Automatic annotation (TrEMBL):
It comes from the Bacteria. The keyword Transcription regulation does not apply. The chain crosses the membrane at residues 17-36, 56-77, 135-156, 162-179, 243-268, 280-301. Keywords: ATP-binding, Cell membrane, Membrane, Nucleotide-binding, Transmembrane, Transmembrane helix, Transport. InterPro entries: AAA+_ATPase, ABC1_TM_dom, ABC1_TM_sf, ABC_transporter-like_ATP-bd, ABC_transporter-like_CS, P-loop_NTPase, Type_1_exporter. The lineage of its organism: Bacteria, Bacillati, Bacillota, Bacilli, Lactobacillales. One of its GO terms (cellular component) is plasma membrane. Residues 19-303 form the ABC transmembrane type-1 domain. It is found in: Cell membrane. GO terms for molecular function: ABC-type oligopeptide transporter activity; ATP binding; ATP hydrolysis activity. Residues 338-571 form the ABC transporter domain. It comes from Carnobacterium viridans. SMART domains: AAA. It holds the Pfam family ABC_tran. This is ATP-binding cassette, subfamily B.
Length: 583
């Protein structure tokens, strides 16, 4: 139950949907009580000979109305509860995504990139189940179970109810035990299957090599083993799956036997009628699912809670940033005033940044150049609040960035790091990762902006081509362009390209930069690069050397200053000419 407390923020936010959902669930539970009772009444009226055609039609009309109402109400609660739980998954997904983009290489070494996505997807589904299936099973077991038991006791007989209920808790236990075993084995079967798939893929792509080395027989044997394992694992699944029905039938059987023995006596002694016994037996059948739901609930909560902890752990994998209790949550807009007097990494004595100051009006572009290790990435790490302890301050929209909540700040920033990572999923899903509901057009628009659209169309499955550790391998430049598209999709107020175009050729780079300039004329952009051509059109350029600003100005200013920048520009121009000449 602890997980519901942890998710409290979400339920508070979605109060209306959940209250509506549970209310309609309750109405359905009440309506469901009607049909069994009517069947009982009809039986009794037949027995007493009082049933006329008119009365029969009356009863049947009520049955039809009840069916229609429960159909409608079921739809309403489903939309409210299931639909809302999907929202939770999306929120967590966005958070994770924003988080992943801020992580450095060591993070992706610690958690292998491909796995990260797979795990995150499974975990998010498990958490979503807590908010969807979990709430449903909880409400269902309490409401449907409760009202049915009350109806049995009130309408028929409370002693008979007690007796009939004795074996039913076994259903909850069975569903808990079998359910969790089934889940475990199902995972085993899935793992075996993807194992076999990997093997098949490997063999096909390595066919030539296999043939040259005469390894085909060994390869076929290995594949046979993997297939065998898939069959064995699936057999294990069905062994458990096949236990469900007999177990339910057995436990219900006991309940029916007890009911009929006692019920028969009550009929003989005139305590209840035959019709009431029939209604009663129908009610028992209605208890199967709520009882089962209790067991399922435990499993959902157990899995959801473990998953939520894992997601939380990933989210906490950042530097020890502490939010102020009354931190600002408003949308960040406006200018940036970056003013760092001194910053050293924790556990380091030498300052990494010294007197780095710049101002950036909304809509402007800043270029940052300098040697490797000069401190460019460090400048951005402070903007992204990976570190809070420095002398100086950074204002964004006239507020210190340390006064905003991390979410408020990071949601406005699209950071594309030096080291790209793509998830093992389709290109489309990679690009719209931050918001899986975006349409194909929007994905394509981002891809066109980053000049990757035509490349994608040429891939085997277009936008559905799977990339990453388990898919097609892309060139460095393609990876970079997809990563930028992924950052663009959230239309960030501030886009930081941290050496994110290094593997893209100069011509393509130019296309991307001019497209970005047009698209983002209202928003702020920072570009760090080795290549002078990446930054030469920026409103201001700063040259970082050993953590300090050594030169600054526009491209024209810097050429006049005749320093490092000019030297780099000339030598890169020369290089380009030589390359161009070699073509
Ligand atoms: N987490 C860290 N802890 C300590 N020193 C670091 C850390 N990250 C970077 N540095 C050091 O800070 C300096 C600047 O690095 P960085 O900002 O990555 O430069 P650039 O992006 O210009 O290549 C380098 O000397 C680097 O070794
Ligand atoms: Mg860097």
């Amino acid at each position: 139950m602890g997980i519901y407390k942890k998710l409290g923020w979400f339920f508070k936010q979605e109060k209306k949907a959940y209250i509506t959902g549970v209310l309609f669930l309750f109405l359905v539970a009440i309506i469901q009580l009607v049909p069994p009772r009517i069947v009982g009444v009809i039986v009794d009226e037949v027995g007493q000979g009082t049933l006329t055609l008119k009365r029969l039609i009356q009863w049947l009309s009520i049955l039809v109305i009840a069916a229609i109402a429960s159909y409608l109400f079921r739809y309403i609660w489903r939309v409210n509860i299931w639909g809302t739980s999907a929202k939770l998954e999306r929120i967590l997904r966005t958070r994770l995504f924003n988080h992943f983009t801020e992580m450095d290489n060591s993070f992706f070494q610690k958690y292998r990139t491909g796995d990260l996505m797979a795990h995150a997807t499974n975990d998010l589904t498990a958490v979503r189940n807590v908010a969807g299936g979990g709430i449903l099973t909880l409400a269902d077991s309490v409401i449907t179970g409760g009202t049915t038991i009350i109806a049995m006791a009130l309408v028929v007989d409370w002693r008979l109810t007690l007796i009939a209920l004795i074996p039913l808790p076994l259903l909850a236990i069975a569903s808990r035990v079998l359910g969790s075993k089934l889940h475990e084995r199902f995972r085993g079967a899935q793992a075996a299957f993807s194992n076999m798939n990997d093997k098949a893929q490997e063999s096909i792509s390595g066919m030539k090599v296999l043939k040259t080395f005469g390894q085909e027989d060994e390869d076929v044997e290995e594949f046979r083993q993997k297939t065998k394992q898939v069959v064995a694992e699936n057999r294990k699944v069905y062994k458990i799956d096949s236990l469900f029905d007999p177990t339910i039938t057995f436990i219900m059987g006991i309940s029916y036997v007890l009911t009929i023995i006692m019920g028969g006596r009550y009929i003989n002694s005139g305590t209840i009628t035959i019709g009431e016994l029939i209604s009663f037996i129908n009610y028992i059948a209605m208890l199967v699912w709520p009882m089962f739901a209790i067991g399922r609930l435990f499993n959902i909560l157990e899995r959801g809670s473990a998953s939520y902890n894992r997601v939380e752990k990933l989210l906490l994998e950042r530097s020890k940033i502490i939010e102020k209790p009354s931190a600002l949550t408003k949308k960040i807009r406006g200018d940036i005033q970056y003013s760092i007097e001194k910053f050293s990494y924790p556990k380091s004595d030498v300052p990494t940044l010294k007197e780095v100051h710049f101002e950036l009006k909304r809509g402007q572009t800043l270029g940052v150049v300098g040697k490797t290790g000069a401190g460019k990435t460090s400048i951005f790490k402070l903007l992204l609040r990976e570190y809070d302890r420095y002398r100086g301050r950074i204002l964004y929209g006239n507020e210190d960035i340390r006064d905003y909540t991390l979410d408020a700040l990071l949601q406005q920033i699209g950071y594309v790091p030096q080291d790209q990572f793509l998830f093992s999923t389709s290109i489309k899903e990679n690009i719209r990762f931050a918001n899986p509901e975006l349409s194909q057009e929007e994905v394509e628009k981002a891809a066109e902006l980053t000049a990757i659209h035509t490349d994608i169309l040429e891939m085997p499955n277009g936008y559905d081509t799977v990339v990453g550790e388990r898919g097609v391998s892309l060139s460095g430049g393609q990876k970079q362009r997809i990563s930028i598209a992924r950052a663009l999709i959230i239309k960030p107020e501030l886009l930081i390209l941290d050496d994110a175009l290094s593997a893209v050729d100069a011509k393509t780079e130019e296309r991307i930069l001019s497209a970005l300039k047009k698209e983002r004329s209202e928003q702020t952009t920072i570009i760090a690069a080795h290549r002078i051509s990446s930054v030469m059109h920026a409103d201001e350029i700063i040259v970082i050397d050993n953590g300090e600003v050594s030169e600054r100005g526009t491209h024209a200013d810097l050429l006049i200053q005749n320093g490092w920048y000019k030297e780099m520009f000339d030598s890169q121009q020369l290089e380009q000419k030589i390359e161009g000449g070699a073509d």
